[in-house]
């Protein structure tokens, strides 16, 4: 099984071997390879993306694969064709593997059971975003040398976050301590008991302070708080940054709501790994795409 649907089901050994292989690919930059010469990969994004889609394409091209980008807005999805029929159609044309991003919860697992080509999850609803968490772990390992023993605070909209879930599964398998910080309305009932909720003052004293985007598009009844209130109560402000440990780092999967969950001037602060996370997405996705087709 070469699909990558999530990190919950992956062993610590599998995760470490992906991180190691990504380090191998990063060390080979800027050289390109023909490792996947003759392989066809479809990027199927049924939900918008900038960095995941673009870095998958960069990774696939660096591996020498033929890349096909499917745009839902210009497809027969607009005529009512289902996601399953769309994926099955692309598979029928001879595509060797698919990268897929979907909004409906549970749909990816259902489709993966009926599709023979390997599928890589590029984010499904609030369930998992495995390559994001892998690039997050890769970034932490590069900075600290190892994951074991780190305390990682994940702060913000935990309930709507596939990034929080994939990080929780992977970080705990690799021996890190995960803690959450969120307002009541953003706590995740399905994760109760798996990581403690701490105050914002405690959360910012961790080794890794990972801020999450407030996902306005997923809040059906609105935030029930203003951006200013959110920033004051849960945002990483400059003042809070000064209370962080000297060695600690700031992370955020992006896109970012500047001056809501993180102050504008912290995005490219020396403590921030935000753009390095995006760079690290390329070698991680090379390792994952290579694994899918090996
Ligand atoms: N972090 C992330 O998944 O960003 P995109 O939605 O732009 O791909």
UniProtKB/TrEMBL annotation:
GO terms for molecular function: amino acid binding; aspartate carbamoyltransferase activity. It catalyses: carbamoyl phosphate + L-aspartate = N-carbamoyl-L-aspartate + phosphate + H(+). Residues 3-141 form the Aspartate/ornithine carbamoyltransferase carbamoyl-P binding domain. Pfam families: OTCace (PF00185), OTCace_N (PF02729). GO terms for cellular component: cytosol. Coiled coil: none annotated. Gene3D superfamilies: Aspartate/ornithine carbamoyltransferase. Its EC number is 2.1.3.2. GO terms for biological process: 'de novo' pyrimidine nucleobase biosynthetic process; 'de novo' UMP biosynthetic process; amino acid metabolic process. Keywords: Pyrimidine biosynthesis, Transferase. Pathway: Pyrimidine metabolism; UMP biosynthesis via de novo pathway; (S)-dihydroorotate from bicarbonate: step 2/3. Heterododecamer (2C3:3R2) of six catalytic PyrB chains organized as two trimers (C3), and six regulatory PyrI chains organized as three dimers (R2). Catalyzes the condensation of carbamoyl phosphate and aspartate to form carbamoyl aspartate and inorganic phosphate, the committed step in the de novo pyrimidine nucleotide biosynthesis pathway. This is Aspartate carbamoyltransferase. It comes from Paenibacillus swuensis.
């Amino acid at each position: 099984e070469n699909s990558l649907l999530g990190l919950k089901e992956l062993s610590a050994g599998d995760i470490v071997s992906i991180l190691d292989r990504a380090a191998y690919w990063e060390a080979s930059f800027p050289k390109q390879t023909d490792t996947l010469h003759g392989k066809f990969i479809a990027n199927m994004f049924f939900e918008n993306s900038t960095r995941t889609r673009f870095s998958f394409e960069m990774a696939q091209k660096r591996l020498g694969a033929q890349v096909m980008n499917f745009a839902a807005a210009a497809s027969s999805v607009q005529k009512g064709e289902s996601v399953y029929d769309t994926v099955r159609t692309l598979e029928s044309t001879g595509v060797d593997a698919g990268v897929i991003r979907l909004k409906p919860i549970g749909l990816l697992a259902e489709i993966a059971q009926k599709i023979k080509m390997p599928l890589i999850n590029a984010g499904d609803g609030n369930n998992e975003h495995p390559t994001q968490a892998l690039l997050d772990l890769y970034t932490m390992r590069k900075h600290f040398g190892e994951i074991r023993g780190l305390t990682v605070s994940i702060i913000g909209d935990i309930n709507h976050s596939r990034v929080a879930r994939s990080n929780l599964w992977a970080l705990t398998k690799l021996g890190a301590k995960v803690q959450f910080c969120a307002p009541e309305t953003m706590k995740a009932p399905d994760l109760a008991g798996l990581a403690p909720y701490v105050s914002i003052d405690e959360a910012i004293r961790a080794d890794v302070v990972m801020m999450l985007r407030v996902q306005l598009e997923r809040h059906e009844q609105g935030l029930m708080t203003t951006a200013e209130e959110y920033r004051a109560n849960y945002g990483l402000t400059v003042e809070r940054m000064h209370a962080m440990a000297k060695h600690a780092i700031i992370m955020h999967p992006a896109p970012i709501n500047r001056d809501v969950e993180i102050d504008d001037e912290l995005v490219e602060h020396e403590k921030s790994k935000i753009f390095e996370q995006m760079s690290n997405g390329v070698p991680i996705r090379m390792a994952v795409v290579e694994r899918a087709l090996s």
